[in-house]
Amino acid sequence: MSQPNHVTHIEAEDPAWKSLYRIGGAAALILLLYSVVTLIVLTLLGAAPSTAAETFALLQNNRIIGLLRLDVLTVFVYMPLLYLLFLGIYVALRPTQGAYATLATALVFVGVTLFLATPSAFSMVDLSDKYAVATTETQRSQLLAAGEAILASDMWHGTGAFLGGMLLQSGAVLISVVMLRGEVFSQTIAYLGILTHGLDLAHFIFLLLVPGLGKILIAIAGTLYLIWFPLVGRRLLQLGRRESKALPQPSHA
User: Fold this and answer.
1) Residue 70 gets which letter from DSSP?
2) How far apart are the first and last CA of the chain?
3) pLDDT tens digits, one per residue of 206-249
């Protein structure tokens, strides 16, 4: 009886499906670039303003910098690219882990969609423009109050965003566990995904209970993303270049 070779067999795929490997891999590398750019923006420009008055002043002085500090790149770059990244991972896992991969991907997609429903940057731009031409203190007070309400329910503070973030990270943890059960991704990628997304998930919980610890957890997770994104992106690009039905088993180192 012949010995099994060390390969992972996957079903023959339509070229359109295989292209999703490359799209997902490219998305992961762009997400890495986004993470680096975000670190630069936070260092050079500062974080988002904490009050409506500060936000209005920032947008009136320099709209581009104001939008960057209001995380507009998260809305138009980071979150949409997560759809493509996790779709690529799903396509890689579906032949052998279809049910759990589908559940994990669904959680991620619902989480991203909820998160994208909560951005406030353009609402603040509109209020800022109205504040700039307001002629009475009553108008200004009303606009400031509206701005504070929007900030309190934006994508970093609102219930929808909070729930969306937890669903996203829960799905990402689950799909990392699914990676361990298959042979398409290395154990390094799987365990690093569990750690990275697990810390990101935990930070949501601790933000409610111990805010200081929550910020520490997300800082650690943010650093780990700089490692996880290129590893999973590289693997997806490798899968996209394969032409045969048999893929070499990834190294577990």
Assistant:
1) T
2) 30
3) 887 888 888 899 899 999 999 999 999 999 999 988 744 444 45
Tens of pLDDT, residues 35-69? 998 888 888 888 888 889 999 999 999 999 888 88
Where is 191: in which H helix or E strand? helix 187-209
Return the CA Rg of the chain: 21
What's the rounded Cα separation, in Å, for the pair 157 and 150?
A: 10
Q: What is the rounded CA–CA span in Å between residue 173 and residue 200?
A: 10
User: Is 8's pLDDT higher than 50?
Assistant: no
Using the structure block, give the residue that is written with the tokens 């909070």.
162
Residue ranges per structural domain of the chain: 16-239
DSSP assignment of 82-135: HHHHHHHHHHHHHHHHHHHHHHHHHHHHHHHHHHHT---HHHHHHHHHHHHH--
> In angstroms, rounded to a whole number, what is the distance separating the alpha carbons of residues 56 and 14?
51
- pTM for this prediction: 0.84
